[in-house]
């Protein structure tokens, strides 16, 4: 090395590090490669039917057996029991039909099943690939009745295959041609609410779009717009699919970047898959005479993906839909772990010899971040770029400050919170602020502010400090009922000092001039809107987003408001008593009579509203079995996680109040002043 130093005038440290990290980069290249694997994706809306025919013409339609099967069903069971209890005997029947229909030239292992009412997703893989699948997680999101229940929504499976993260989503979106905006909202709700926990609990949950590969299939229910049924059938007869596709709602909305941004769909050269007379290839001859449409679709997002075929399967006649399949060839990142580990360890041992001479260092693009006008449940993010300007690679991690359990306040996350930087490399870290029902109460009252200091620690290096500040706009979401009853103005218009001192001030106030409202004005406004405008609407349409401030928006706001209360309508201290007497109506009502006045008023007001809804069940098709599970868990929340027995008792307790008695209060409260 002394000869090199004299000739090239470089330090031993710099030269040795450059040599070793070139070897490390080479090791990554040599020990990793891209493997091409075939994925069969199939989707079938079976219209509540039992399997009546072999699925081989659909599932075994490829020349060679695929490596993976992701098989999606919708409307597996349309019975009321499946909707209420999420249980159906048709699940094993269709699962067996799928297994019998897989390609006969390969052996497959079952990996996972996930189902939400009638939306089901099955995952099979060739036996030889099973050992390389890990981190399998499933989730579901309901977007149906009240924007929550599972008659519509999505199920998903995420997994890691070798070194690629893959997420598969099966969705069944809102029906009817004119409801394309509701379908768009369903898609956005699924993307927002579908979250997968990670093995490392310190890391934030994974959303759908955080994966290397996203495969999205199902009955998307998008239709063909602005064409009469006879014109559509004439274009189909002429096989003029290009003209027809110009009127397809998926195409129209993706071109406007409303939904499926960044996704790809193969060319459609098959006729629409909906709607047929069951048991035939004849278009719908019912009185409704539905316009044919490509409801059943398969899209993907990611790099190194090639579609080998995209087709429908007309020979299957069980349903009023035809099944669709797509065969994708996906490049999977594969690393020879043993070779990589051996090479990596050799290089790290060499680098460790220079530890004392080469201290890691980084530069930050910014050290102070200000978040303006943060609102409840509205995400804000800013990015700090960390650049490794040192002579060695480094590991970074945000660490807790002294006597603090976590590296940041609960309303703040850094993503990624730790990682590895090669020499000269950089990483973008998203600082994300999100105020939820857990963090909102103290921010609303002014007991906490949006202020934190993050400590970015380098392994064998120094610490860097990042200052995060912001202003939070107080909200009724996350505020207590007692506080809201004392507020006569919107909470955002009140000084924080006034809100913080509200309780102590009210104790010495004039009872005539400062009398609290019977119920919070926010609850009255939401319930009054629904009572006046939605009590007779059919339950599935009751919350459809026809316009801003619609019944759908107001109902979701009401549910979110109740879920965000720091102390539920029936306070936590009453929870054990409620479970004990859940089967005795008179004792249940006695407990309600002992609630704090504002809590009792709100409970009576809400139950009176629900009783009014039930009076119009002939119009809105609501019944106790639908309303009780939704509102029971919001009004009578457990301070800890509930088991199935507790959930049953909570529902039983609340059902007593959905049957009106002469002593029940009427919904017609006067408007809060």
UniProtKB/TrEMBL annotation:
Occurrences of domain Rho-GAP (ranges): 479-666
GO biological process: phosphatidylinositol dephosphorylation; signal transduction
Primary location: membrane
Pfam families: Exo_endo_phos2, OCRL-like_ASH, RhoGAP
EC number: 3.1.3.36
GO terms, molecular function: inositol-1,4,5-trisphosphate 5-phosphatase activity; phosphatidylinositol-4,5-bisphosphate 5-phosphatase activity
InterPro entries in UniProt: Endo/exonu/phosph_ase_sf, Ig-like_fold, IP5, IPPc, OCRL-1_2_ASH, OCRL1/INPP5B_INPP5c, Rho_GTPase_activation_prot, RhoGAP_dom
Name this protein carries in UniProt: phosphoinositide 5-phosphatase
Cellular compartments per GO CC: cytosol; early endosome membrane; phagocytic vesicle membrane
């Amino acid at each position: 090395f002394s000869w090199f130093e004299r000739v090239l005038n470089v330090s031993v440290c710099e030269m040795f590090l450059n040599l070793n990290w070139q070897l490390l980069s080479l090791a990554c290249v040599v020990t990793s490669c891209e493997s091409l694997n075939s994925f069969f994706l199939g989707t079938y809306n079976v219209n509540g039917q039992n399997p009546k025919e072999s699925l081989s013409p659909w599932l075994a339609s490829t020349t060679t057996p695929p490596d993976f099967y992701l098989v999606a069903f919708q409307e597996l069971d349309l019975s009321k029991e499946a909707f209420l209890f999420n249980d159906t005997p048709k699940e094993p029947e269709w699962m067996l039909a799928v297994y019998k229909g897989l390609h006969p030239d390969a052996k497959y292992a079952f990996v996972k099943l996930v189902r939400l009412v009638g939306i089901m997703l099955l995952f099979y893989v060739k036996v030889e690939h099973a050992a390389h699948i890990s981190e399998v997680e499933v989730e579901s999101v309901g977007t149906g009745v009240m924007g929550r229940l599972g008659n519509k929504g999505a199920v998903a499976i995420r997994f890691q295959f070798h070194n690629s993260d893959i997420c598969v989503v099966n969705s069944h979106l809102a029906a009817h041609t004119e409801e394309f905006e509701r379908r768009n909202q369903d898609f956005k709700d699924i993307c927002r609410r579908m979250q997968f926990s990670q093995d490392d609990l310190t890391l934030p949950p994974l959303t759908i779009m955080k994966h290397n590969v996203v495969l999205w299939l199902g009955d998307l229910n998008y239709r063909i717009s602005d064409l009469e049924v006879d014109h559509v059938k004439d274009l189909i007869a002429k096989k003029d699919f290009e003209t027809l596709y110009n009127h397809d709602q998926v195409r129209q909305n993706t071109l406007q970047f409303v939904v499926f941004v960044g996704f790809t769909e193969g060319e459609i050269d098959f006729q629409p898959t909906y709607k047929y007379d069951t048991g035939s290839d004849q278009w719908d001859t019912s009185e409704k005479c539905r316009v044919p449409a490509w409801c059943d679709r398969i899209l993907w997002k990611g790099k190194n993906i090639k579609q080998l075929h995209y087709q429908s399967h007309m020979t299957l006649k069980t349903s009023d839909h035809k099944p669709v399949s797509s065969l994708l060839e996906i490049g999977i990142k594969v690393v020879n772990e043993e070779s990589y580990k051996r090479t990596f360890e050799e290089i790290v041992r060499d680098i460790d010899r220079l530890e004392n001479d080469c201290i890691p260092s980084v530069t930050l693009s910014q050290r102070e971040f200000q978040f303006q006008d943060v609102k409840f449940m509205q995400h804000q993010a800013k990015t700090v770029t960390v650049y490794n300007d040192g002579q060695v690679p480094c590991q970074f991690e945000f660490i807790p400050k002294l006597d603090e359990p976590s590296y940041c306040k609960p309303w703040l996350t850094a993503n990624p919170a730790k990682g590895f930087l090669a020499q000269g490399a950089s990483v973008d870290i998203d600082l994300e602020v999100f105020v939820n029902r857990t963090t909102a109460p103290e921010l609303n009252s002014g007991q906490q502010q949006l202020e934190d200091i993050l400590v970015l620690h380098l392994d064998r290096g120094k610490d860097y400090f990042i200052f995060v500040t912001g202003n939070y706009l107080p909200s009724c979401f996350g505020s207590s009922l007692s506080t809201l009853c004392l507020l006569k103005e919107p909470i955002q218009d009140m000084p924080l000092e006034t809100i913080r001192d509200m309780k102590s001030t009210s104790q010495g106030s004039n009872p005539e001039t400062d009398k609290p409202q019977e119920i919070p004005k926010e609850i009255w406004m939401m319930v009054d809107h629904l009572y006046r405008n939605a009590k007779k609407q059919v339950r599935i349409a009751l919350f459809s987003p026809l316009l801003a401030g619609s019944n759908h928006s107001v109902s979701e706001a009401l549910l979110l408001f109740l879920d965000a209360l720091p102390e539920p309508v029936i306070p936590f201290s009453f929870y054990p008593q409620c479970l004990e007497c859940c089967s005795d109506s008179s004792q249940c009502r006695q407990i309600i009579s002992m609630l704090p006045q504002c809590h009792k008023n709100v409970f009576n007001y809400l139950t009176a509203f629900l009783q009014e809804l039930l009076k119009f069940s002939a119009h809105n098709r609501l019944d106790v079995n639908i309303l009780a599970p939704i509102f029971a868990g919001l009004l009578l929340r457990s301070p800890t996680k509930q088991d199935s027995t507790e959930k049953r008792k909570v529902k039983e307790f609340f059902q007593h109040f959905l049957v009106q008695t002469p002593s029940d209060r009427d919904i017609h409260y006067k408007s809060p002043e």
